[in-house]
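User: Could you check the structure of this?
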Amino acid sequence: MDRWPAWALVAACAVAGQAVKFALYSAVARRPAVAALVQGYGAPSLPAAVLSCLLALMVIRRGWASSEASLALVLAVIAVHDTVKLRNAATRQREIVHAIVTAEPAAGPLMRRVAGYLDPLSHHPAHVVTGVAFGLLFAVAAGAGPR
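Assistant: Sure, the predicted structure tokens are below.
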């Protein structure tokens, strides 16, 4: 597969990651978890898997000194940092809004339901780590070969 373009391998990594996520979430729920096919959060993290796959492919094909590997490294670091930081901020925001809505005596069941929808649906650091590992392993398996 070393002749495939990098974008095709990165897209294949995204599809494979979502398939793994679908299988994992379906096994846990004991029914098909179709929503897992289109969600970016969860294990493995889609952004972390895709960008770590891109980084590994650029390093394998072009080397560490290439501008492509440098760009992929910067994108991967920014994305992983943002997904972990966003989780903390979104969780904090949800806690505050949920406390305000549920503490208000005039808040009816509809307002409490709205507070429940404010779930950040974000990444846990373990999801990001599994995404990075998945992307790296996929790139090594698919992109290995002579340059």
